[in-house]
Design a protein that fits this description.
This protein has 311 residues and is α/β, with parallel strands linked by helices. The chain has a single domain (3-310), classed as Divalent-metal-dependent TIM barrel enzymes (TIM Barrel, Alpha-Beta Barrel), CATH 3.20.20.150. Helices cover 40% and strands 15% of the residues. The chain is built from ten helices and eight strands. The chain has helices spanning 41-53, 71-80, 102-121, 144-163, 184-194, 205-211, 216-222, 246-255, 276-279, 290-310; strands at 28-31, 58-62, 84-91, 126-134, 167-171, 199-204, 226-231, 262-264. An eight-stranded parallel β-barrel has the order 1-2-3-4-5-6-7-8, surrounded by six helices. Strand 7 (226-231), helix 8 (246-255) and strand 8 (262-264) form a beta-alpha-beta unit. Helix 3 (102-121) packs parallel to helix 4, helix 7 runs parallel beside helix 8 and helix 8 crosses helix 10 (290-310). It starts with 27 loop residues before the first strand and ends with a helix. The structure holds manganese (II) ion (MN). Residues 171, 204, 230, 265 line the site of manganese (II) ion.
């Protein structure tokens, strides 16, 4: 992914006279659910325009409804806005590559291939999320046979994705959303077993807050295999309004020399997408003003990256 100059990434108060760098290499992204719960052409174009206007480099769409996208129009509107596009998703109970039912696994494999196609048609090069399981709370741990099915499915998907210049991310999600990968360590072992160069690790501060001991150890453990990063508060509202230790988070990213994307995720009952909002358990209204939320998030991210680079 290409990087932009971030000359507007101004210094923190009290350091304005510093001669240290005020730029950082990371593309900054925002999840489309900050703007809209719809995937119509009009919604995609408006989200692209708002994303660019707020100063972001990248827009992430959930691909939970593959048929909803007009991929060619989306591709043009995203390119016109100068944005990279990322796709994310989880699988579904009836289409789950971690199942032990061959028919369910086959539907999961089909869904993954179609997701690669839709993302590539939109001009994207990164597909991530819970690609290894359904998205939701499981009633029991993943079975060895189920995990092996997920490994086989992703090992088959990886070269297909590579042909379309798509890298796959394994997003580490919390225990209420998957039973296959809950920690960075789990994700590294899954990626080892898949054994493909275009499979990377995707961490998310919201999930890390639930599952990891701290924000430094897992980021260090993943190191140069970190390909994508979500930033979200513990309650998924305004950055800085919760209790996540973002100082440690940004320092850890700087410590491993992370140059990949950093994408803001936040959800409120103000913007609803069925069934995604229900899967994410978005019951509360944490914000009303998307523009204010996104603008402040981008500044928070830029300031955090600059401060960590200086320290
Ligand atoms: Mn996430």
């Amino acid at each position: 992914m290409t990087n932009n100059d971030h000359d507007d990434a101004v210094s923190s108060p009290g350091t304005a006279a510093s001669s240290a760098s005020t730029t950082f290499p990371n593309p900054l992204g925002v999840h489309a659910l900050v703007w809209t719960g719809s995937c119509t052409s009009e919604a995609v174009r408006e989200a692209a325009q708002q994303t660019a206007a707020a100063g972001f480099d990248l827009l992430e769409f959930s691909l939970h409804d593959l048929d909803a996208f007009d991929t060619q129009r989306a591709r043009k509107d995203l390119a016109d806005a100068g944005l990279q596009v990322v796709g994310s998703r989880g699988l579904a109970p009836e289409a789950d590559v971690s199942s032990t039912d061959p028919a369910v696994v086959a539907r999961g494999v089909e869904l993954l291939h179609r997701s690669v196609d839709v993302l590539a048609d939109m001009g994207g090069h990164f597909l991530s999320g819970a690609l290894y399981s359904a998205f939701g709370k499981y009633p029991s741990p993943v079975s060895a046979a189920g995990r092996a099915n997920a490994v086989a499915a992703l090992a088959e998907l990886a070269p297909y994705a590579a042909e379309r210049s798509v890298t796959l991310g394994l997003e580490v999600c919390n225990r209420y959303e998957t039973n296959v990968v809950n920690t960075a360590h789990d994700a590294l072992r899954l990626a080892d077993d898949i054994g493909a160069d275009n499979v990377v690790i995707h961490l998310d501060s919201y999930h890390m807050n639930i599952e990891e001991a701290d924000f430094v150890t897992p980021i260090r453990e993943v190191g140069d295999r970190l390909g994508y990063m979500h930033i979200g508060e513990n309650h998924r509202g305004y950055l800085g309004s919760g209790h996540i230790d973002f100082g440690s988070f940004f320092d850890a990213l700087a410590g491993i020399g992370y140059t990949g994307p950093l994408t803001f995720e936040s959800f409120s009952s103000t913007v609803v997408s069925e069934p995604l909002s229900s899967n994410l358990a978005i019951w509360r209204n944490l914000w009303n003003d998307s523009v204010d939320l996104a603008t402040k998030a981008r500044r928070f991210m830029a300031d955090g990256l600059v401060a960590a680079t200086r320290s």
